[in-house]
Predict the 3D structure of the following.
Amino acid sequence: MKNTDYFKNKKVTIVGLARSGFACANLLYDLDADVSITDNKDTDVIRSNILKLKSKEIKVELGKHTQEFIRNKDLLVVSPGVPNDALPVIWAEQFKIPIISEVELAGILCPATIIAVTGSSGKTTVITLIGQILEASGKRVFVCGNIGNPFCGEVQNLQIGDFVSLETSSFQLEGTKSFKPKIAVMLNFSKNHLDRHKDMEEYLEAKKRIFINQEKDDFLVLNSEDHVLRDLAKEARSKTVFFSQTREFNPNQAAVVVVGTLLGIDKNICLKIFDAFKGLEHRMEYVAEIDKVKFINDSKSTLVESTIWAIKNISSPIILIAGGKDKGLDYRGILDVAPNKIKEIILIGEAKEKIKSALRGSLSFDVAGTLEEAVMAAFSKAQPQDVVLLSPMCSSFDMFSNYEERGNVFKRAVYALAKNKN
């Protein structure tokens, strides 16, 4: 690592003790910081993370936030799921305490070449493919984001000459100050996270932080078919390179090929990786077939656009399970592809009434209290050759800790259903 004395003896409070908060706490403890953690939740997962902290010297409060954990600190590190109006953030601003994200923290310490990817959708697929082409070309690479470890969980393993393929959300980017990837990739920009950002302009400003500190020897990779992103080229000091969908490559693959070219990786390596790539868990993942009804886990779909893509790529009639925590999206978008495809929607979560209101009169609905109940209801309504599709169009945080947990609950419910049928 570099800048290892940067956090020494600093009093740091971390907000949130999920994956990234846990990784930050152990990293900062190793760097001789005075570490505190505050989380207003008190769950089994969080308590299990406490047991895995490196020292009992790390102070923790659960189920609440108190000013004592914020006051007189040198730094506040905010986990991705923590909103800007959370009490620790408000107090830190009042006390004039600097606030940064996990990505900023790890970026200060990182000696490796960072390839950072952002966008409204496709980030996890692209960082995975970038990681695979780098590995196939003999490079030492660490893939960090919604898959793999958080950036802070890997930075102690990084050396000069290594590469980081890093997924960066708007939540993480808005907490950066000096973050500067060698290659910044912006895949697309569409309506998202308006439960967090006050409007699309604020959302875009957060995304732009991926390249704001880049210099002339860095690279910004933009989608030429996205008019919002295309226009950002004039704001960048770095070298701008464009990608676009072709007959040979979808947009995600096209972006990876451009990154590969910038890194001197042979295009044939990209082709071999694309050919072997079987997709990601929780993204259009085949789960099982029961009585000729197929079940597909698309829990990673937290956008209307992602669910539209899923519907388009299924030829059979669909029983759709949707809902969760609303992100301020317009659910009427699926009406363009729903006719003759969606037989019924089973709604769950906080957003169920908003979705029902947006689509009332166009589609049939049922409501379930839990995801397990939704699976049972969907199966009871399905006919042979139908597909039960979990593609929520919402985040998972009303019912689950993340989309992975949501997808795993769906799969367990399907497996239990299959077992009971045998």
Remarks:
- The first strand starts at residue 11 and ends at 15.
- The chain has three domains: 11-97, 104-276, 285-421.
